[in-house]
């Protein structure tokens, strides 16, 4: 569904990704872990072409993407992204946030977009917040709206960039719950997170990035109980 | 009552029909200056943030020249410059000069407001598949506009007061009339006090309306 081959990405002199290979199967949930600065967020942003890779290949749904020739807006629409800081549109209501892209990008009729928006809000448990502005929501609610907004484009893959890192501890659960539900419905997901409990319960595979390369890729049980790499072992000790 | 109040009152009562007409001219000058300035400002702000070096260069040159020279010089320059090519009445020459002058300042206001919108907004919009134009017009610009309103209001007040400078090309606005009145009546102090009052009241009304509008925007968002 989503493949990165030999991905290199530098910011000036700083090489953040040094040849990353990652293959995500349809319906698979991959959790990306690693210490701060290991390149996990950058990798995610490359998959959505918010950052352009310097070398390597990105293949989405069997199609190798050529950033120079292909219509990146169309590709981005197929890859959903949820941000650490939610990035809801503050000048639009919750429902308008969700309706925006289906109407402007997919040219969906307003009433259809509204119907879709309300369905998605129902799904994330915020049907009653449809007409309020984001400033009135808690962090957890904002992130659930952001997930619904992303789902409205019916993406093939969902990328989550530390979706619970900016939340108060008591609000983390409600967001993870929505993500778990999505995983159960068969959404292909790549999740950057520090929530190890979520990784253990929901991930099909955990991938460890270190200094811009993949050093471990295993199912949760193997990852936590029998990691191959010494750095992974240190990381697990650190987070547990 | 002290003598001074009586004489100011007399001047006021004698001159108000003329001043009301002049106020209308001042407001028209300000309106054209502000509207034209906003249009020019928007265009140059977009040029300044564009990817094109040439467009950025043009915008920077314009802003540098306008900000680096006095408005009164610009008014004279434009008036006598345009008259060479095209006969234009002094009202239009003056209000166009105000617009061109304001455009440079408003361009900077818009540029700052656009660049002040959280980059995450642009990223979220792009990640949903919206293109640059849609992202700009639907997400970034509406937010930038809200941020621009307080500094724009400030700029509008400056324009209202700056419009007094077009008296040099003979437009009968408030200051020109006051000047004439001062000379004819030999009561310069009273005349200019009346002039000051007209500007002060106009600015206060404008400030009040602006605050009303800002509050309404904030209520909308809350």
What does this entry look like structurally?
- The complex is a heterodimer of chains A (240) and B (222).
- Chain A is of the alpha/beta class and 240 residues long.
- Chain A is 38% helix and 25% strand.
- Chain A has a single domain, classed as Rossmann fold (3-Layer(aba) Sandwich), CATH 3.40.50.300.
- Chain A starts with a strand and ends with a helix.
- The mean pLDDT of chain A is 92.
- Chain B has 222 residues and is mainly alpha-helical.
- Chain B has a single domain, classed as MetI-like fold (Orthogonal Bundle).
- Chain B starts with a helix and ends with a helix.
- Chains A and B meet through helix 2, strand 6, helix 3 and helix 5 of A and helix 5 and helix 6 of B.
- Chain B: Pfam families: BPD_transp_1.
- Chain B: It is a multi-pass membrane protein.
- Chain B: It is found in: Cell membrane.
- Chain B: Keywords: Amino-acid transport, Cell membrane, Membrane, Transmembrane, Transmembrane helix, Transport.
- Chain B: One of its GO terms (cellular component) is ATP-binding cassette (ABC) transporter complex.
Count of β-strands of chain A: 10
Whole-number average pLDDT of chain B?
Answer: 90
So what's the CATH class of chain A? Alpha Beta
Quote the average pLDDT of chain A.
92
Helix content of chain B: over 70%
Which strand-content bin applies to the residues of chain A?
25-35%
Report the largest inter-chain contact: A-B, 28 and 21 residues
- In DSSP terms (H or I, runs of 4 or more residues), the helix count of chain A works out at 9
Low-confidence stretches of chain A: none
Number of domains of chain B: 1
Q: Report the radius of gyration of chain A as a whole number of Å.
A: 18 Å
Separation of termini of chain B? 51 Å
> So, CATH architecture of chain A?
3-Layer(aba) Sandwich
């Amino acid at each position: 569904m989503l493949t990165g081959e030999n991905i290199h990405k530098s910011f000036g002199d700083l090489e953040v990704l040094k040849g990353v290979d990652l293959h995500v199967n349809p319906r698979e949930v991959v959790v990306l872990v690693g210490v701060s600065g290991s390149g996990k967020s950058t990798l995610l942003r490359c998959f959505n072409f918010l950052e352009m890779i310097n070398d390597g290949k990105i293949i989405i749904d069997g199609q190798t993407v050529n950033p120079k020739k292909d219509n990146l807006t169309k590709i981005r629409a197929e890859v959903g992204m949820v941000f650490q800081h939610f990035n809801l549109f503050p000048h639009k209501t919750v429902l308008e946030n969700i309706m925006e892209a289906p109407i402007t990008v997919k040219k969906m009729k307003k009433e259809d977009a509204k119907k879709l928006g309300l369905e998605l809000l129902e799904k994330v448990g915020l049907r009653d917040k449809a007409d309020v502005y984001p400033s009135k929501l808690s962090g957890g609610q904002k992130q659930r709206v952001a997930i619904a907004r992303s789902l409205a484009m019916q993406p093939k893959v969902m990328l989550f960039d530390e979706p619970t890192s900016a939340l108060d501890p008591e609000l983390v659960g409600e967001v993870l719950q929505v993500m778990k539900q999505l995983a159960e419905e068969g959404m292909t997901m790549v999740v950057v997170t520090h929530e190890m409990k979520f990784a253990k319960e929901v991930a099909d595979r955990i991938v460890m990035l270190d200094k811009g390369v993949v050093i471990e890729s295993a199912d949760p049980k193997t990852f936590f109980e029998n990691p191959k790499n010494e750095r992974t072992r240190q990381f697990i000790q650190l987070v547990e | 009552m002290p003598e001074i109040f009586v004489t100011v009152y007399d001047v006021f009562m004698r001159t108000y029909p003329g001043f009301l007409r002049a106020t209308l001219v001042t407001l028209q000058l300000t309106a054209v200056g502000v509207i034209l300035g906003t249009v020019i400002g928007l265009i140059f702000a977009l040029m300044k943030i564009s990817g094109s070096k040439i467009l950025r260069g043009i915008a920077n040159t314009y802003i540098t020249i306008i900000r680096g020279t006095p408005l009164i010089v610009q008014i004279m320059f434009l008036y006598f410059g345009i008259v060479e090519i095209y006969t234009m009445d002094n009202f239009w020459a003056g209000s166009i000069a105000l617009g061109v002058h304001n455009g440079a300042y408003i361009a900077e206001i818009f540029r700052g407001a656009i660049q002040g919108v959280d980059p995450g907004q642009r990223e979220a919009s792009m990640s949903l598949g919206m293109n640059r134009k849609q992202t700009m017009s639907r997400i970034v610009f509406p937010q930038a506009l809200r941020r621009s309103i307080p500094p724009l209001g400030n700029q509008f007040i400056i324009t209202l007061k700056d419009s007094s400078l077009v008296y040099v090309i003979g437009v009968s606005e408030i200051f020109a009339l006051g000047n004439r009145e001062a000379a004819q009546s030999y009561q310069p102090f009273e005349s200019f006090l009346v002039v000051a009052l007209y500007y002060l009241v106009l600015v206060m009304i404008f400030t009040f309306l602006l605050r009303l509008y800002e509050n309404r925007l904030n209520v909308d968002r809350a």
